[in-house]
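Researcher: I'd like a candidate sequence for this fold, 490 residues long. If you have to choose between options at a position, lean toward the conservative one.
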């Protein structure tokens, strides 16, 4: 049992009924999971307001209700009512207290930005683990706690779930947690209740603006900026034109990184590297530390991601040699992930699933002067047709050959989606073939690969399924590639 008043530390509240000396069995934020003597937090969601379940919660035996506005309760009920300005904000602190404030026992790294969060988080995890640290990860793809891997539903989980993960990580012996911190997470107070030891800003572009997201770019930027009022050390990309706005009013120590001369940690002498079936980059690092880096991940944005990881890991006393070794072998699933199939051409898997990401990727790969740049992709069903037109047009402009195929058709017919992509390509002079079956499309790409080609399988990335008519069927591109190679080799 927990004392109610012990769960209410760290934020302002008013006890409008009952007493905070009451005992509480557990904390619940889902009206379907009410138990006797629990503390129930009434959360207002997009489709359901937990306040409407207050009476049912009392009848089911809840001892404490946390509310932000009036609720209807049975007459003469004995329940403690805690009134707060925002129940999501309160939930973050209640959850931290409920799980014993596990973040206080670990170093917490928060990575925010429009692009690069996922790759940076994995690079940091990889480097720190190579240096002997035990590291937990909370990200867009998955949550990793020791050997346990949990598929992610949100980039930044709800505060109660996040604190539960923190507790599991602490119990598993994790010394460090690296997590992607989304603007939605800040906006919905999922990251309250603890302090980040290190807060990292990669970059910002207009994104996540619309219904149920951010009202404007200014709102989006303001949510990102919250990290630097909730961390001890802020590490920011000073090449991004918005970095001063993002750090305005910061309460943390601040250091910068980038390619510009004004950065505390600087990258220079960037060179593109082409090898047998792989692409990469070399660059030098100056300022807070000095070293030379080579990594088998292509493009200038990969240099930024690597530099960001270096800026973080140097705070953990990782040696230059360990950083160099780790970055040379680092791979991030589904993010410009090289898959060796031939010495003649390069094949990679990437999550680029919208026009902006695809344009950035193909433009980067063009810099390596391939014999041909081949782009294989499809678009998801029951989503905007505009995305299909735009991706078709981008690939038509930038790729020498586009292979149009299927990608999570959901409840639409795959051919209808392919026809929409072709509409976009028709605005260009780009060559294309259409092969609806994704495995056969990949087979075509591999068997028709020419010396010096770069072939990109775009859109699926880390995903290991294909969603058709409401059913998710297993489909991992790495597995498909191996099956095709086995079949080719007899």
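Model: Candidate sequence:
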């Amino acid at each position: 049992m927990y004392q109610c008043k012990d769960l209410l530390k760290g934020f302002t509240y008013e006890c409008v009924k009952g007493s905070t000396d009451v005992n509480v069995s557990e904390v619940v934020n889902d009206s379907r999971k009410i138990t006797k003597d629990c503390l129930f937090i009434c959360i207002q969601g997009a489709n359901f307001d937990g306040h409407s379940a207050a009476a049912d919660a009392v009848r089911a035996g809840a001892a404490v209700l946390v509310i932000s506005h009036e609720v209807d309760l049975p007459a003469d009920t004995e329940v403690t009512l805690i009134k707060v300005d925002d129940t999501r904000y309160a939930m973050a602190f209640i959850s931290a207290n409920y799980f014993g404030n596990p973040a206080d026992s670990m170093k917490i790294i928060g990575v925010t930005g429009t692009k690069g969060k996922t790759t940076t988080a994995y690079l940091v995890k990889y480097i720190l683990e190579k240096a002997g640290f035990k590291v937990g990860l909370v990200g867009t793809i998955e949550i990793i706690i020791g050997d346990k891997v949990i598929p992610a539903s949100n980039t930044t989980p709800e505060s109660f779930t996040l604190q539960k993960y923190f507790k599991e990580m602490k119990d598993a012996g994790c010394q460090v947690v690296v997590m992607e911190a989304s603007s939605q997470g800040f906006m919905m107070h999922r990251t309250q209740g603890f302090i980040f030891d290190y807060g990292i800003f990669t970059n910002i572009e207009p994104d996540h603006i619309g219904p149920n997201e951010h009202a404007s770019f200014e709102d989006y930027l303001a949510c990102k900026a919250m990290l630097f009022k909730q961390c001890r050390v802020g590490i920011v990309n000073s090449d991004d034109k918005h970095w001063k706005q993002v750090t305005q009013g910061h309460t943390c120590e601040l250091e910068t990184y980038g390619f510009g001369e004004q950065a505390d940690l600087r990258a220079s002498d960037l060179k593109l590297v082409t090898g047998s079936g792989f692409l990469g980059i070399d660059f030098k690092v100056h300022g807070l530390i000095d070293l030379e880096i080579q990594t088998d991940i292509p493009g200038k944005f990969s240099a930024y991601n690597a530099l960001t990881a270096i800026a973080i890991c140097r705070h953990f006393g990782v040696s230059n040699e360990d950083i160099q070794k780790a970055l040379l072998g680092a791979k991030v699933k589904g993010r410009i992930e090289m898959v060796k199939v031939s010495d003649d051409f390069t094949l990679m898997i990437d999550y680029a699933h919208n026009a902006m990401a695809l344009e950035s990727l193909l433009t980067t790969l063009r810099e390596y002067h391939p014999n041909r740049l081949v782009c294989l992709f499809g678009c998801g069903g029951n989503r905007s047709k505009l995305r299909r037109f735009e991706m078709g047009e981008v690939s038509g402009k930038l790729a020498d050959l586009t292979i149009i195929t299927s990608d999570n058709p959901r409840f639409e017919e795959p051919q209808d989606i392919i026809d929409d992509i072709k509409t976009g390509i028709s605005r260009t002079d780009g060559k294309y073939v259409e092969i609806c079956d994704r495995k056969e499309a990949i087979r075509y790409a591999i068997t028709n690969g020419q010396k010096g080609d770069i072939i990109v399988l775009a859109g699926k990335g880390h995903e290991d399924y294909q969603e058709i008519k409401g059913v998710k069927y297993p489909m991992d591109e790495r597995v498909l590639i191996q099956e095709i190679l086995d079949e080719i080799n007899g």
